[in-house]
Specification:
Length: 106
Amino acid sequence: MSWIFLLFAGISEILWSTAMKLSDGFSKVGWATVTILGLITSMLCLLQAVKHLSFSLAYPIWTGIGAVGSVIVGVVLFHDKFSNATWFFVVLLIIAIIGIKMTAGE
């Protein structure tokens, strides 16, 4: 169950960061509200995950899910453009997240 909470925490991280962009500097109340609710949800899910997972495992996976997810959202929704070198480092981040999980012994 802790892994499910961690996954939801990461997805909420992507949600709030996307909503923050869409809030246009918090000038759009609806998106600003989604940002705040996403932040709260992300923190609460992370809190539940670290009850049974080590913090040194959960935190980098949570931030990694948020980072990679935000990159993908940026490319798909906002048409961000990245060089091949940037994509190389995104792939390295994914590999690092998988490596942390596989070697943590949990």
